[in-house]
Design a protein that fits this description.
Largest sheet: 6 strands, mixed
Number of helices: 10
Helix content: 25-40%
Strand content: 15-25%
Strand order of the largest sheet: 2-1-3-10-4-11
Number of strands: 11
Radius of gyration: 18 Å
Structural class: alpha/beta
Length: 237
Amino acid sequence: MLVFAAASLKNALDAIGGDWRRETGKHATISYATISYAASSTLAKQIENGAPADLFISADRDWMDYLEQRKLIDPKSRVDLLGNRLVLIAPKDNKTELVIRPGFDLAGALGDGRLAMADPVAVPAGLYGKAALEALGAWPSVANHIAAAENVRAALLLVARGEAPLGIVYQTDAAAEPGVRIVASFPPDTHPPIVYPMALTAASANPDAPSLAAYLRGPAARTRFEAQGFTVVDPAR
């Protein structure tokens, strides 16, 4: 089975994959080698180009909509799985303090450095981040000082390595990386809701795919997701 999942899901899905494999006794199922982690935009385009994914978990609704409009997912299987928060991070030893509010001086805090974030043109974390900065009036002053990464985990690493003094990532990414600290959280009303939809692909014929999708909505997976800082949008009842 091949799962395509947003890069920010890596820690949680690696753990859940191990749980599912042990609980079901399956051996050719979900593991690091059979999950492709990347930006949702990249994965959606790969599915459009014929990649044999069985299950897709996007970090936003837009890229799932993109595939649904092209009849490349099974719409009956589509659910909103998770939610997340957007945060501003700095290297763990960086003492920068900022209060995120309209007109806050993000450019001043950056100094001569760049703001690490996922590509704000196409990648969900970057799109959410740009929307928040626009809502707060900070985008014009930093638009030319962005270190645009291919996905949110790449942006996270730029900050963890000290290559960027500040970055915008999901709360769950910050929690998974000891090399960074959260400076502040973005108010949820400054950007579209961060929602991770999940769906089977239209081309999938793998009989285990629906079982895995159901497992990801169950109580064991919920515990793992919540331990990583996600909110479960549509848990199994």
